[in-house]
Amino acid sequence: MEDPKYMTPRIEILPEKKFIGLHLTMSLSNNRTGELWQSFMPRRREISSISSDLYSLQVYGPMHFRNFSPFNEFSKWALAQVANFDVMPPGMEAFTLPGGTYAVFVHKGSSTDTRTFQYILSTWLPGSDYDLDNRPHFEVLGSKYKNNDPGSEEEIWIPVRLKNS
Fold first, then answer.
1. pLDDT tens sequence across 75-117
2. Contacts of 102 (CB under 8 A, 6+ apart)
3. Does this model's pTM top 0.85?
4. Total domains, the chain
5. What CATH number is attached to the domain comprising 152?
6. What is the span of the domain harbouring residue 95?
7. DSSP state letter for 46
8. Cα 83 to chain center, whole Å?
9. Contact 70, 27 (CB under 8 A)
10. 121, 164, 157, 163: which is closest to 11 by C-alpha?
11. Cα–Cα distance list, 61 to 80, 92, 142 (Å)
């Protein structure tokens, strides 16, 4: 894994995006990510996606990080991006990601290695010109992503807003 302390994010303003997929409620102490993706992956071809990238997205409550506990629950989604919601596979759900500003980090290494997230939240964010915004967080699992592989690469998108805004 690349040493997180040398990571500099790019800042992007993302337009609204539409997705179709599945979600589960979980916490860090009751991590059901494997279960979520095992149910989604066999069905991903049912979605008329506009990209081969997949998205792992988390919706946290407004106090999730202020009163952090590994028992705090959140909603985690396995998603594919779509142009519209005209064709909805049975049992799947639509998700609209609101637009906004994101700090984008490239994580190299296993998806189980949490050092990048620790660096972002405990080092980069407090020292930056940004505060965490209350919008979904997500990872883009593109062509270089390999589940639990030390050679894997993914993008981590953290919702931010300028401090004092």
1. 999 999 999 999 999 999 999 999 999 999 998 887 777 788 8
2. 11, 12, 13, 14, 157, 158, 159, 160
3. yes
4. 1
5. 3.20.80.10
6. 4-162
7. G
8. 19
9. yes
10. 157
11. 23, 22, 27
